[in-house]
Design a protein that fits this description.
The complex is a heterodimer of chains A (162) and B (351).
Chain A: H1 2-15, H2 20-31, H3 34-51, H4 56-66, H5 75-90, H6 97-109, H7 116-139, H8 144-161
Helix pairs in contact in A: 1-2, 1-6, 2-3, 3-5, 3-8, 5-6, 5-7, 5-8, 6-7
Chain B: H1 2-10, H2 21-37, H3 45-65, H4 69-89, H5 98-116, H6 131-150, H7 159-169, H8 175-192, H9 197-210, H10 217-231, H11 241-253, H12 258-282, H13 294-305, H14 319-340
Chain lengths: 162, 351
């Protein structure tokens, strides 16, 4: 069940289809852990608050027009995107779930859609996110998880004030 | 009877009472729940029980699109018909006084409408403009939902009029008071009774109905509550996913008022509590669906997979959600098939 949900979440994230709530639910099921699921909800919620929409299509479209979330906009909004992405990586989702969390982190940070250029940025961000998440799963200290929770909460607060 | 009602509404027949698509759907839901839960009585109780079912459906339809007069009469009659025999026989459920609560709720609503609203409350459409009428509506609605969720299975149809009254009356009350109280109650109910998501959904629906720009959130929560009461199973928490998506959309796209913030935070806590209950229950290998519940199961699947097509319930603008569910379902189906082929996808270890 967790693997299947992870596949669904990965496809949603990579294709930017559907609602961000659905992505958060599937990430939570893939993780099979309440705390990890809560971080997924907070991080994706921060992205929705930052862009003013819960549509993954619209979030990708906005990044295509304006630029990657971690590089454009007010400082607090940029900080929110960095915090959300870092939280998804550092929470150390169990098993193959780490890859999906990393993909989502990459797409929250820099997930434009459209022509070849934006798609290349998107693929690079997703690959980097997945790699960092797997590395964090194996090598990050135990303090990474509490730090991820703080970062996720911070992402929501920063997105709210931006 | 339900078929005739639906045909009359779709064919725009002239009927002696007002019908709307929403009213017809609500009446059909009440009738279906009654069909699932109300076994035929024997002896003198049988005619009264059948009459209660008929009047309840008429009342529900009227409440959703017309005068409140028939609704109050129907509630009093249906609740009273259910209360007297059950109290005489001795209730074997957890809440022995549940049917009596339903009767009290109906009487409170009628009396409040007649006395405090000068009789106008029972002869014009809901919601009531007077504060006392609205308060009595919310209280009566909450009591009816409690009766439906905690009482005997025969009381389950009362969830439909309970939600209709509550959702119609809530906007007439102070936004922050209703939203805060109802949302906090939803969180508390979710943590204490995770096996009955209907209660949490109904309370959240009341809270959302009090908000100014909640869109389709109250209707989607009400639909989840009505379907959930048929299952009485923690896994029915998944019925709330479309409402969660709609609430998130409202929160992300509008200015975050304090009342909306309270509802969003309480909804997140409620989702956390319900998901824990659902996860525990989902691990049970004995989980299954009775054949009589298949129609409700189909409706539940419809709600979760394509709420954008529930136009009659007020749901709209959920095309993105529908597309996402389609994409995710297709990929998950392929993954399931892939797991059957050795080596394509990793299988979980048994340790």
């Amino acid at each position: 069940m967790r693997t299947v949900a992870g596949v669904g979440a990965a496809v949603l994230a990579l294709s930017s289809s559907g609602e961000i709530v659905l992505l958060a639910v599937l990430l939570g099921v893939a993780a099979g852990d309440t705390v990890v699921g809560a971080v997924a909800v907070l991080a994706t919620g921060a992205a929705a608050l930052r862009w003013g929409t819960t549509s993954l299509d619209a979030i990708a479209g906005a990044q295509t027009v304006l630029g990657p979330a971690v590089a454009v906009g007010p400082l607090v909004a940029v900080g929110s995107a960095w915090c959300a992405a870092a939280a998804l990586i550092l929470i150390k989702a169990p098993g193959p779930g780490a890859v999906v969390f990393g993909l989502t982190a990459g797409l929250i940070a820099a997930g434009p859609s459209g022509g070849p250029g934006p798609v290349a940025v998107r693929i690079a961000a997703a690959a980097l996110g997945a790699g960092l998440a797997v590395a964090a799963q194996h090598r990050a200290p135990s303090a990474a998880r509490p730090a991820a929770m703080v970062l996720a909460a911070g992402a929501v607060i920063l997105a709210g004030v931006s | 009877m339900t078929l005739g009602w639906v045909t009359a509404t779709m064919g725009r027949w002239d009927l002696p009472f007002e019908t709307t698509g929403r009213g017809t759907a609500a009446a059909a839901a009440a009738t279906a729940l009654a069909g699932l839960a109300w076994g035929p009585r024997t002896g003198r109780g049988a005619p009264a029980s059948v009459a209660a079912l008929l009047v309840l459906a008429v009342g529900v339809a009227q409440a959703a699109g017309g005068s409140a007069l028939l609704l109050t009469a129907a509630l009093a009659f249906a609740a009273g018909t259910e209360a007297v025999p059950v109290l005489r026989e001795g209730a074997r459920n957890r809440l022995r006084s549940a049917p009596a609560l339903g009767l009290v709720a109906a009487i409170v609503f009628v009396v409040a409408g007649m006395v405090f609203d000068g009789g106008a409350g029972i002869s014009r459409p809901l919601p009531s403009v007077r504060l006392i009428g609205a308060v009595s509506g919310v209280v009566a609605g909450a009591l009816l939902v409690l009766v439906a969720s905690l009482g005997s299975s025969r009381a389950r149809p009362l969830v439909v009029p309970g939600l209709l009254i509550g959702l119609a009356a809530a906007p007439a009350l102070p936004q922050m008071a209703v939203a805060g109280t109802a949302a906090a109650a939803a969180t508390m109910l979710a943590f204490h009774l995770p096996g009955r998501p209907t209660l949490a959904f109904a309370a959240l629906a009341l809270g959302a109905a009090a908000l100014q720009d909640a869109g389709q959130v109250p209707d989607l929560l009400a639909a989840a509550a009505v379907l959930g009461v048929a299952f009485i199973n923690p896994v029915s928490a998944v019925l709330g996913i479309p409402a969660a998506a709609a609430l998130a959309s409202v929160a992300a796209s509008t200015r975050m008022e304090p009342a909306l913030a309270v509802v969003v935070v309480c909804a997140a806590a409620t989702a956390l509590a319900l998901s824990r209950g659902a996860a525990e229950r989902a691990r049970d290998p004995q989980i299954g669906i009775a054949s009589t519940m298949l129609p409700v199961f189909v409706l539940a699947i419809w709600l979760v997979f394509s709420p954008g097509s529930w136009g009659w319930s007020g749901a709209r603008g959920l095309g993105t959600y529908d597309r996402g569910v389609l994409v995710a379902s297709a990929s998950m189906l392929l993954a399931l098939v892939g797991r059957r082929v050795p080596g394509l996808l990793p299988r979980p270890t048994s340790s």
